[in-house]
Specification:
Number of helices: 10
Number of strands: 21
Largest sheet: 8 strands, antiparallel
Shape: globular
Helix content: 10-25%
Amino acid sequence: MMFSRRRIPVSLAGVLCAAAVLTIGLVAVAADAEDRNKQWATSWATSPAAYFVYVAPVPQNQALAPAAARFAAATVQPDLAFPFPNANTRGATTQTIRSIVKPDLWGNRIRVRFSNVFGDKPLTLDSVTVGLQEYGANALKGTITRVTFSGSASVAIPVGQERWSDSITLSWVKDADDPVVQGRNLAISYSIQGDSGHMTYHAAANTTSFITAPNSGDHTRDVSGFAYLYTTTSWFFLDAVDVMASKDTVVICALGDSITDGTHTTLNTNDRWADVLSRRLHDAHGNKVSVVNEAIGGNRVVNPVVANAAAGPAAVDRLDRDVLGLSGLTHVIWLEGINDLGAAHPTDDIIAGYKNVVSRLHAKGIKVYGATLTSALGLNNPAQGWDLTHFPDFLATADNGSRIDVNRKLLNEFIRTPGLFDGVAEFDQATVDPATGNMKAEFVPNSQLTQLPWDYLHPNHAGYNAMGLAVDIRPFAPKGHR
């Protein structure tokens, strides 16, 4: 049987070819137009505070020890001698970390950033992946996605620097409103080649992440968590996740110390005051807003600070990196100063620090909301830490606590006075008991580490909820939503 090949006239072939080219061109134009209406926006972030230094936990056979010593042993951090046996010299060694983070804003294009700012040698990551956490160290099958850096699977990060990945397309995310991923966590896995040296980290993640054994190699593509033998409540090296989002997205940074970082919150529940605020804003404005947390427990507004303390550099020093370095930043809510008072810094010095930071943010067009400091009558905090000898009767009767509270009220008067801040978040009024001047009784019992004495400084779950509800969300509405 003979078949004849039908020839398309030259003129018609030209038309079809032109149509195909036009279609491709229109698709490219549409993609370009979409990108022009979008920008990188920070979806999750944390502040690198120091390099990790291993300190052995207090021995647990403390039955006959004074109460303060038993209380001092309480910590949510597992003993990291097992995953990092040479932490203070070699750091992590040819092993994989799976960090768990909760994006505040989703999308199908993201990028991640790693930090070696406190390192003492170049950090080499030979494989990085992102996936959707299923539970524990397990990733949801079909979501593990390869990450590249300038097209390469590996990256070497010099001492004192950070590196962004390439744009990552998440085929398993439909869009920013995809209900399948709302409220879910990312599992970001990275294989460390050789010795990391000093490990840049954020100590108090209040989130469980996972670590393989030393010299176990690359497990970034593992769906199961079987290789991740150890846990940590710190974030190592990873410090930001961006999402490609609409240009009118509002990005709010919660800046501060332990009360913003989440001390005494419930582990793995994301119940900090900034998380409560985030939920309110998303309920009101959907995917047009992102709230990220750049707080560090123990942080201060001004210097001096303790060298390489987990409390990090002072706010005046870390502002450019931790805050102005956030993609798409529009607003800051700042709660800080109580640790400065505990270290006997004069209120005038703290106010000068407020002015320094706010002026630098205003110069970049960022609006800044001052948060009033919560009650500190229970605080007895010498320059280097808590005075445990006063537990549990060091509260309103402690001279140091009383002096700090007087100065706290002076700072709150300044924060409330118009002229510097663009607005005020009334955390003091939301948490104080007017009859005693201390924190309301229902906000005092700890939500974690319940054997610790109540410190009358860090709120519990209910207290953080009250703080998040106290913020007026109207000033943070995206354009067109006001």
